[in-house]
Amino acid sequence: MSKLVRDKVVIVTGGAGLLGKTFCQAIADNGGIAVVAEYDIAIAEKLCTSLGNASIVPAQVNITDKASVETLITTISKKYGKIDVILLATPTQFLRAVLKRLKNCLIYNIILVNVAKGIEISSKKRISEVVAEELGNKEYSYVLLAGPTHAEEVAIKLPSAILAVSTDEDAAIQVQKLFSNLYFRVYTGTDLTGAELGGALKNCLAIAAGISDGLGFGDNSKAALITRGINEILEIGKYYDVNPKTFMGLSGLGDIIVTCTSKHSRNRYVGEKLGKGEKIEEITANMNMVSEGAETIKALYAIIEEQHINAPIFSALYEVIYKGKPVNELVSLFMSRNLKSEFV
Fold it and tell me: What is the pTM of this model?
């Protein structure tokens, strides 16, 4: 695997989480310089002093607790030169606030790489749309990294593959070269809308799969639920006029498999707890990480209702989480619907 032609400088915003640090490791392993920008000073100080994740954060990675974006970027630029990439590892519902802080700092063309997966609740917009809205006429290229890559496994360098997708193919190729190595293989793609939808909706489907686990159902039940959920994702994809082939790729089927079945999946975990009778408020309050699916389903439900999309599993999932519908009704609805042909 070829090394970078020169060091590339990458700022990872919201980077104190495991996912952000894992991407930093890949950058550093490839000869780049990664700076974790964690704007919660308490979290940054804990990370810097305890180094509880020392096995994950390599020596080449710098951790900063600078609360001011302007100060941070100025400091990093003086120390390392031009910043090549800003990697956004911020949960979807908090991203707009981060973009507002970044906007005035983007004084030259830069690649923004997003690893969050969701739909903004207030606007029902995909992340690339939120970025475009907030950054206006700033010069940047937007690349989404999506695929079956749980950070817990990438961190210990188990072989993984991911998709760098962008309408700017050259930017996607640059990101491919930045991250690819012997344990982390990056493919490129151009169907940004399809990849964003696949990444967002699989989190919701993983909650449904987790509910099946929590209720004590078997592999047959979960496999059927996931398959019919994929059918609903294809229906939603029709509304967005995306290439259905995208949903069969890394950002679709690949991510669905890992998120719906893995012990590392926070969204599947949320569903399992729901299946065991816990409420969403107590589940999320006891989690160290964010369940993107629990938030995205709010926006997705609104889209389904407004556009009259046939998606009974996703609709029932929202009603189970937020409208008090008994959790076992999700599976009951799935099993008791009128009999029909599979693809009609």
Answer: 0.88
